[in-house]
Amino acid sequence: MPNIKLDEQAIQQALTELNASTAQEWTIENDKLTKSFRFKNFQQAFGFMTMCALFAEKKDHHPEWSNVYNKVDVQLVTHDVAGLSAKDFDLAKKMDALAGSI
């Protein structure tokens, strides 16, 4: 399936579906899908990042993120389409699932 930039309506629909199953919502900031994850400690935060990194590498879709102690800030965007694509929402769903498993 080719990577296609989502239009505003598709983004809002995907965002609504994504947030229907999570306590802490994803938002759109600077045209990027954005969320801050908080964990009990650095070990859990780093473990989350490691699991996400393995998945992201398999999908060849890599997050923009940072980590300070127990907090992981994530921004997702598909650079080759200069915007959001289904790949971003798929990765966001996986990140929510991985965060919930910790």
TrEMBL record:
The keyword Mitochondrion does not apply. InterPro entries: PCD_sf (IPR036428), Pterin_deHydtase (IPR001533). This is Putative pterin-4-alpha-carbinolamine dehydratase. GO terms for molecular function: 4-alpha-hydroxytetrahydrobiopterin dehydratase activity. Its EC number is 4.2.1.96. Coiled coil: none annotated. CDD domains: PCD_DCoH_subfamily_b. NCBIfam families: PRK00823.1-2, PRK00823.1-3. GO terms for biological process: tetrahydrobiopterin biosynthetic process. Belongs to the pterin-4-alpha-carbinolamine dehydratase family. The keyword Zinc does not apply. Keywords: Lyase. HAMAP family: Pterin_4_alpha. It catalyses: (4aS,6R)-4a-hydroxy-L-erythro-5,6,7,8-tetrahydrobiopterin = (6R)-L-erythro-6,7-dihydrobiopterin + H2O.
